[in-house]
Amino acid sequence: MRPLVLVLCLLTTTSPAMEFHVEGETIRATGPIEKGDAKTFTARLAPLIDSPLWTLAFSSPGGNLIEGMRLGEAIHATYAGTLVEAGQSCLSACAIAFLGGRSFGTYAHGVRREIEPGARLGYHGFFSGRNDQVELVNEVLDQSRLVNALLLDYATRMREVDGGLLSKLLTTAPAEMEMIDTPAELSGLGIALVGEPLPLPQDWAKTACRNAVRTMIGAFADAGPLIGGDEAPIADPEGLQRQMLDDRYPPAGGSEAARAALAGLAPGDAIELVAGEAIFIEPENPTMRVPLNHGGGFLGDACYTTSDGSSVTTLIVNGIDRTVTLQRGDPLSAHDPDRPLW
Predict the structure, then answer these.
(1) Domain check: are 173 and 263 in the same one?
(2) Is residue 202 very low, low, confident or very high in pLDDT (cuts 50, 70, 90)?
(3) In a domain, 51, yes or no
(4) Is 16 exposed, middle or buried (0-12, 13-18, 19+ CB in 10 A)?
(5) Which residues are bridge partners to 115 per DSSP?
(6) How far is the C-alpha of 106 from the C-alpha of 197, rounded, in Å?
(7) CB burial of residue 111 (10 Å; 0-12, 13-18, 19+)
(8) pLDDT averaged over the chain?
(9) Residue 174, SS3?
(10) What are the tens digits of pLDDT across the range 125-169?
């Protein structure tokens, strides 16, 4: 997350109300959030939402905090998704309303919150807009605790929000803004990244393997020491077959019969049997092998990973137990969870 310094009052403004414009199945919600916006949405726009594609695309500096929660509730009740497009901002009270995004129909139990790379979705703490805060410190603190409690209750009802992350965001000084721009923050707020795919980082293979190992050993354990040396590309099926057999069935490891049987198969068939599913080998998009270290009960020997732009596949090979653990994630699984994406 990257801090942005600005001054926004969450509870009182004198700006015009939010404007709603319909473009196909997209409702563009622009301008500050003011009292009455939720009623306007419910009366004029909610009746239009009758399919899974309806989305509110926000562009707003914030506004009235309570009305932002009301608007989020109204969006949630109509099963509409929420979106912040590249180059647009949804800050403060708008970011609270954004959490109301919800899937439609069969998937109505889930959420649909989306942002594009380069979007600015920002959270911070609130302030009352009073000019005598220095004299009313205790009152302001009480107000802050009350509002934070209301926001956490609201977020729980909106679903798939990490209360710990939101609490941390709400401790940001009112004159600053924390932008949501890391995989961990997106995951913690139930947000999907859409739009133009991000390029893979230079260290994507080791990062994808580290994330896969962390999933196996627990999110709070340090997976870094378990990642060995540099990654190596394997661009041909025969080479991948030989290396996978060496890792899963080490020579003189007591599995000579299984190794010999797999070595006699066509490379694609052998790789599929070792991995548990077909792995497509392309010279321009080779499979990457990352050596692993043992430690803390973890016995993985190698990690294989590949990405087709829409997903990242990892295979953790254990030559002691002769096992393979396959994981498939979205493209963000090849990025450091705490590194800003833009």
Answers:
(1) no
(2) very high
(3) yes
(4) exposed
(5) 84, 193
(6) 27
(7) buried
(8) 90
(9) coil
(10) 876 555 544 444 455 556 777 888 999 999 999 999 999 999 999
| Burial grade of 333 (CB within 10 A; 0-12, 13-18, 19 or more) | buried
Burial class, 126, CB count within 10 angstroms (exposed 0-12 / middle 13-18 / buried 19+): buried
Confidence (pLDDT) at 281: 76
Cβ atoms of 54 and 83 closer than 8 Å: no
Q: For every residue of 281-320, which 3-state class applies, written as one string? A: CECCECEEEEEECCECCECCCEEEEEECCCCEEEEEEECC
Q: Is the pTM of this model over 0.90?
A: no
Rounded to whole angstroms, the maximal C-alpha distance in the chain is 82
Strands (E), 60-110: 81-84, 89-91
Question: Helices 237-248 and 267-275, interaxial angle, to 10°?
Answer: 40
The pLDDT tens digits for 235-255 are 999 999 999 999 999 987 788
Whether the predicted pLDDT of 58 surpasses 60: yes
Per the CB < 8 A criterion, the answer to whether 274 and 244 are in contact is yes
Note down the domain range covering 315: 204-334
Considering the domain architecture, whether residues 300 and 256 belong to the same structural domain is answered as yes
pLDDT at residue 329 greater than cutoff 90: yes
**Could you give the number of structural domains in the chain?**
2
Does residue 41 sit in the same domain as residue 185? yes
For residue 207, which amino acid is it? T
260-293: per-residue pLDDT in tens?
999 999 999 999 999 888 887 777 889 999 999 9
Structure tokens at 97: 């309303």
Find out whether 244 and 323 touch, Cβ atoms under 8 Å: no
- CA-based R_g, the chain, Å: 25
Is the same domain home to 215 and 189?
A: no
Inside any domain, residue 145: yes
